[in-house]
Amino acid sequence: MGLMYLMPTEENESERILIDLEKKKVTLKSYGLPWVFWGYLGAVLVVIFAMYLAISGPIEKLRAGEDQINLILSYIVEGSLILTPIVLLGFFFYEKILEKNGNSITIYHRVFFLPLYKKTFQLESNDHLSVNHFMDSPNIAKLQNRPELKGFENKGYFELHALVNGKLILIDRHSRKADLIKIKELLSRV
Questions:
Q1: Across the 190 residues of the chain, what is the mean pLDDT of every consecutive 10-residue run?
Q2: Which of 31, 34, 128, 174 is the most buried (most CB within 10 A)?
Q3: What's the pTM?
Q4: Helix (H, G, I), strand (E, B) or coil at 61
Q5: In terms of DSSP H, where are the helices of 93-122?
């Protein structure tokens, strides 16, 4: 999720990074979405509200009829118009937490401050974190080596992995390698 929900990289960000050397525990909490996305959400909610106002009359007519299919369709449409803003708002209250305690790393995913998913991994040693480059598609623009295609080159992104029982486990990803290296250094402090 690091391409959209960024993790802190500087130790002075005390509300997002908690380092307790006595307990050998480091906790990193992701940032929310940038403020511009709240503007997008507001625009989408206005459109959904306008759609709801436009179809509320026909929905009532469908419910007044005796046809069961129309009744079911009216509930599906109304339910999707109610659930869509809730799901979209969930993206704004999503938080990823990386917690390293000794040689164990726990990844928490929370939505609306409620725990949604938790996974704990035991590292074989403290230095089993690595940053790797990932590119999922061929870099055609770079292969053609033409100056006018320079802006279209696929640069890929970087992934932070933990080595657990001989398998690489994805911890986070980011478009900047330097930020993942800083996260790796923060997690390796304990």
A1: 71 79 86 89 96 92 88 93 94 92 90 93 81 72 69 75 86 86 84
A2: 174
A3: 0.78
A4: helix
A5: none
